[in-house]
Every structure is written in C-alpha cells, then in structure tokens.
C-alpha cells in the first residue's frame, strides 16, 4: 500500500492523516468544508513541528510527512487512486453509508475501505458496497498521534487479507492492534461509555465534584485521564450519539445520563465548544 484517502478532516481525520504520513504513506485528506481543511492543515503542521522540536521525530521526517499530505475538497480526487480509504465522519449510520457508497464507486477495485467508527456495524456499512470482503473498521483513538491502539473489527464478510493489510498499515503508523469480532461498541467503547455514563450519573447525584471523580479514577484505578475529562475531549455530542446507539442495540444499562443530554442541548460539547464538564475558555488548545 502506498496511498491512503482519509474522509473527514475533523479531530480524528486529521490525526489519522498525520499518523499515515509519518508512516510513509501518501495521504489525501478530504473534507467538503474548506474551513475544516484549513484547520486540519494548521493543526498538522503545528503538531509535526512540535514533535520535531521535542525530539519525537526528526526534522527530516516532519518535512517528508508534511509534503506527503494533500488537502482536497472533492472526495473523488481523494479516492481515485487510493489503496486504502479511511472514513472519519460523524457517528451517523446514514452518513457513513452514503460515504461508503461513494468510496465504493470511486476507489480502485483493489482498495480496502475502513470506517473509524467507535460503535457502529462494519457489516451494515459493508452491505452498502459491492466489496464487503474489503470492508472493516479501524478504530483509532484520540489524540491519534499519541494513542497506540487501533481496534481492527471484522464485518461478517471481511476477508483475512483485508484484516492483515489493516494490521500492517497500523503497524507502519506506529500503532498496536487488537482484533475484535463485530458487536455493538466493540471492546473499548462499551467499557468507556459505561464508565463515563456512571461518572455523569454520580456527578448529577452530587456524589462528588467532576474534579474529584476524575482524580479518584486517575489515582485509585490508574486511569491516565478521568472519565469526565475524556468525555469532554471526545465531545459530548459524539458521546451522546454513541450512548444512544448502544442504548438502542444493547439495552437499558446504556441509557444516556440525563446530564449528558442536557449539556448537549445547551451546546456544552466539551473542549471544542469551550465548556463541557470543565470550562476551557481560558485554556490553550
């Protein structure tokens, strides 16, 4: 594999593009929104330079990776000669199916199509294409350039060859992989959503403050980040969509905490909006 198309230049898409370019791939990062591409370019260039300054990569590696990323505003341009296409759009099944139908039309027949979904069915997504054996999920984690794991999730018809190719790509990106059989939420999202939801319920019950809940999880259970901090980082709207999907597919224990629903309705979406369970209005980044 030489060329990777990334669909969606948001938080996850830009991170995947960054990791792919450092892994030696030519990357085409697509988004329909010009402002998203501009923001992604700025983010990637800043993070690449910071990594070089801190000695994580060499200046030469940074320069090569930056030259390897092309920012495109037409999906067909990103897809036309891709060996692998990775979708990183909102967690909405209708949107993902639409993207995959277009990728199936425009990507070469050899190309593997991957979704970065954290909860949804690669089988359902694959059924919208004419190549279900070449469709799977590659679930990256935020921030992509720091997090080592990629969950590889098979759909019903995913071939062994597609799985091995995805593992090889992740390895070149500097990641480690676990292979997961498809089930709603996979491994990490099911666990994270439950822990985060219980933290939100405890907060609304007045059991402890957000700071103390997070501190207890970090110091008592050795979590690198508290569940409420993590929800703010992921985005509370994204977490709510995940919870609603898991509630629908796995049952009552995944019913979203009322405080999560209320915060999303109020526009308190976490870091990206400046306020969630914490206030980020005076915090850089």
UniProtKB/TrEMBL annotation:
Segments spanning the bilayer are none
Q: Which UniProt keywords apply?
A: NAD, Oxidoreductase
Which one of the record's GO molecular function terms can you name?
NAD+ binding
What's any GO biological process attached to this entry? fatty acid metabolic process
Gene3D superfamilies the record matches = N-(1-d-carboxylethyl)-l-norvaline Dehydrogenase, domain 2 (1.10.1040.10), NAD(P)-binding Rossmann-like Domain (3.40.50.720)
Record site feature (Important for catalytic activity), residues: 139
Q: Which Pfam families match?
A: 3HCDH, 3HCDH_N
Q: Which residues form the 3-hydroxyacyl-CoA dehydrogenase C-terminal domain?
A: 185-280
Record keywords: Oxidoreductase included?
A: yes
Where does the record place a coiled coil?
none
Instruction: Determine if Cell inner membrane is one of this entry's keywords.
Output: no
> What range(s) does the 3-hydroxyacyl-CoA dehydrogenase NAD binding domain occupy?
4-182
Supply the InterPro entries for this chain: 3-OHacyl-CoA_DH (IPR022694), 3-OHacyl-CoA_DH_NAD-bd (IPR006176), 3HC_DH_C (IPR006108), 6-PGluconate_DH-like_C_sf (IPR008927), 6PGD_dom2 (IPR013328), NAD(P)-bd_dom_sf (IPR036291)
Which pathway does this polypeptide act in?
Answer: Lipid metabolism; butanoate metabolism
The family line of this record is:
Belongs to the 3-hydroxyacyl-CoA dehydrogenase family.
Name it. Answer: 3-hydroxybutyryl-CoA dehydrogenase
Annotated source species: Novibacillus thermophilus
């Amino acid at each position: 594999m030489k060329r990777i198309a990334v669909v969606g230049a948001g938080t996850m898409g830009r991170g995947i593009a960054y990791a792919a370019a450092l892994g030696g791939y030519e990357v085409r990062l697509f988004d329909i929104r010009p402002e998203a591409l501009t923001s992604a370019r700025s983010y990637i260039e800043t993070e690449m330079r910071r990594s070089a300054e801190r000695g994580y990569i060499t200046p030469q590696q940074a320069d090569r990776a930056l030259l390897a990323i092309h920012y495109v505003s037409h999906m067909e341009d990103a897809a036309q000669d891709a060996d692998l296409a990775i979708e990183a759009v909102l967690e909405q099944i209708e949107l993902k199916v639409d993207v995959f139908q277009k990728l199936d039309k425009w990507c070469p027949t050899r190309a593997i199509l991957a979704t970065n979904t954290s909860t949804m069915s690669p089988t359902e997504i694959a059924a919208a294409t004419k190549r279900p054996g070449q469709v799977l999920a590659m679930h990256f984690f935020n921030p992509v350039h720091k997090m080592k794991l990629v969950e590889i999730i098979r759909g019903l018809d995913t071939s062994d060859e597609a799985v091995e190719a995805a593992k090889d790509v992740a390895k070149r990106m500097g990641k480690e992989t676990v292979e997961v059989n498809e089930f709603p939420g996979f491994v990490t999202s099911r666990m994270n959503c439950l822990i985060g939801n219980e933290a939100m319920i405890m907060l609304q019950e007045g059991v402890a403050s957000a700071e103390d809940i997070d501190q207890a999880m970090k110091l008592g259970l050795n979590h690198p980040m508290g569940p409420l901090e993590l929800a703010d980082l992921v985005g509370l709207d994204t977490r709510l969509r995940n919870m609603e999907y898991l509630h629908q597919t796995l049952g009552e224990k995944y019913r979203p905490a009322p405080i999560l629903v209320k915060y999303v309705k109020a526009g308190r979406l976490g870091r990206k909006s400046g306020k969630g369970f914490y206030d980020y209005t005076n915090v850089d980044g």
